[in-house]
Amino acid sequence: MHRTIFTTPVVNALLRAGSIAFLKLTGWKVEGSLPPEASKAVLIAAPHTSNWDLPYTLMVCFVLRLNIYWMGKSSIFKWPFRGIMMWLGGIPVNREQSTNLVASSAQALQDADGAVQLIVPPEGTRSKATYWKTGFYYIASTAKVPIVMAYMDYSQKRSGLGPLFHPTGDIEKDMIAIKAFYANFKGKNAQQFEA
After folding, report:
1. Total number of domains in the chain
2. What is the rounded distance in angstroms from the CA atom of residue 71 to the CA atom of residue 5?
3. Which domain holds residue 103?
4. Could you tell me which residues are beta bridge partners of residue 193?
5. Which residue, 65, 58, 165, is CA-closest to 115?
6. Nearest 10 degrees: CA dihedral of 59, 64, 65, 67?
7. Which residues contact 154 (CB under 8 A, 6 or more apart)?
8. CA of 91: how far to CAs of 84, 156, 169, in Å?
9. SS (HEC) of the chain
10. pTM, to two decimals
């Protein structure tokens, strides 16, 4: 895993303090904490309906002292933004090419020294999506790490970490349970989210 803003000591401390202050001033509440058994985990990022999700997610991660990496479409990693996006924890995903993303992501989680959390938006887009991609599920299952049901609810200005979910192998049943957890959360553009 590459160096990120979360592993840069002085910058991390300053941005954590700034994130706490900003979220408090704007009325956001950060909930939950990462259990020790989930130091390596896949975090679901839902609902994902706006570009604003990234800065808010980064701030929440600073508050919760997470060491995150997140997946984003490869087009946002083009020059001149590639360096900053990578430093923010980004991992470019080329949606037009079939790659071994699940296996390589799972291996990276297993090989990482220390705590690391991989954030994956199951909708795969900010646009309205009625079907969730299952990559997050298979990454967690392959890496043998839990899924953390992370959320951001703009209607109530709250974000955080929900319960852990351990894949059973019955993906249809598991996806029903996971989506049920997200049913009441509202994204910034609520009409674009369907759990």
Report:
1. 1
2. 15
3. 5-192
4. 129
5. 65
6. -70
7. 186, 187, 188, 190
8. 11, 29, 26
9. CCCCHHHCHHHHHHHHHHHHHHHHHCCCEEECCCCHHHCEEEEEEECCCCCCHHHHHHHHHHHCCCCEEEEEEHHHHCCCCHHHHHHCCEEEECCCCCCCHHHHHHHHHHHCCCCEEEEECCCCCCCCECCCCCHHHHHHHHHCCCEEEEEEECCCCEEEEEEEECCCCCHHHHHHHHHHHHCCCCCCCHHHECC
10. 0.89
Per residue of the chain (195 residues), what is the pLDDT tens digit?
788 999 999 999 999 999 999 999 999 999 999 999 999 999 998 888 888 999 999 999 999 999 999 988 888 899 999 999 999 999 888 766 666 888 989 999 999 989 999 999 887 544 444 678 899 999 999 999 999 999 999 999 999 999 999 999 999 999 999 999 999 998 888 665 555
CA distance linking residue 123 with residue 101, whole number of Å: 16
Report residue 109 as tokens. Answer: 């989680």
